[in-house]
UniProtKB/TrEMBL annotation:
Residues 4-228 form the ABC transporter domain. The keyword Transport applies. GO terms for molecular function: ATP binding. It comes from the Bacteria. Keywords: ATP-binding, Nucleotide-binding, Transport. It comes from Maritalea porphyrae. It holds the Pfam family ABC_tran. InterPro entries: AAA+_ATPase, ABC_transporter-like_ATP-bd, ABC_transporter-like_CS, ABC_Transporter_VariousFunc, P-loop_NTPase. The keyword Ribonucleoprotein does not apply. SMART domains: AAA. Belongs to the ABC transporter superfamily. This is ABC transporter ATP-binding protein.
Amino acid sequence: MPALKIEHVIKRHGTLETVSDVSLNVEPGERVALLGHNGAGKTTIIKMVLGLMPITAGSIDVLGHAPGTAAARKQTGYLPESVAFHGALTGREQLHHFARLKSTSLKAADDLLERVGLAHAADRRIRTYSKGMRQRIGLAQVVLGQPKLAILDEPTSGLDPVSRHEFYDIVEELANNGSAVMLSSHALTELELRTDRIAILSKGQLVANDSLQKLRDLASLPIKFKVTASNDTIEGVNQQLGGKRVNCQSLELMCAPDQKIGVLSAITALGPVVKDVDVTPASLEELYRHFSNVEEQTK
Ligand SMILES: Nc1ncnc2c1ncn2[C@@H]1O[C@H](COP(=O)(O)OP(=O)(O)OP(=O)(O)O)[C@@H](O)[C@H]1O
């Protein structure tokens, strides 16, 4: 049974429809990325899931309960886009406060401070924390009590690349322990490897909802090859393979996904004259643009 079940949900603000017939499930242990342009409807969906905003039509089921009910809230962890804590409290005091609210042990809160890399600053006031440190407190607050559903709105904004990596390690642990995770983000490259499914919203409509591999198959965008040879052989390689020279040692080729093996064979048939080959499938950014544009074209 899905941890989160969104069925044919519509949201209207007066005559303005901001979410149009969206259906989306998140299974236990699954990490789903919710992507979309500014104003696509991500936060509106999150607010409806949390019971902070009423639904105009359709239904949302959170672990068998209606959104916003005590039973749903008890099992849900939420990290808002702009996280705010009490500046006069220390990190430890703030997290202990959340632990009491969630009926979780203070020891679990202390362990989490360590896990999110804040043990050294745990007894400093939060007003002295950097944005990234506050975000870490926010993540610790979500993980506390191992919620069955975790909702993270733009969770990595303000984090440096190493912290982002550590952040996704913790999200992965959460999912490995059975939590369903839904996170919204604009940072596409980091989501490629760190989520199980991608849901793309465009103007309030869900225009894609699948694993990265399946989205690649559906979009069938060209695959890029970068072939490197030496200065004196690149011209001959270019003549045999075609493609576009990018510098005096390499060229770029594109092909449809079903021609990939054929192109690779042609490259390897050239033998040791080829020094290196990079094969790059469509990135999430390219897929995102593709699916968002498909939606624009049908309007
Ligand atoms: N209370 C409201 N009244 C009227 N329109 C609203 C209200 N709340 C949101 N909207 C509109 O709904 C649309 C979706 O907004 P939402 O905040 O869900 O987008 P988002 O995908 O989260 O964008 P961002 O990436 O910028 O955070 C926007 O056009 C916004 O102006």
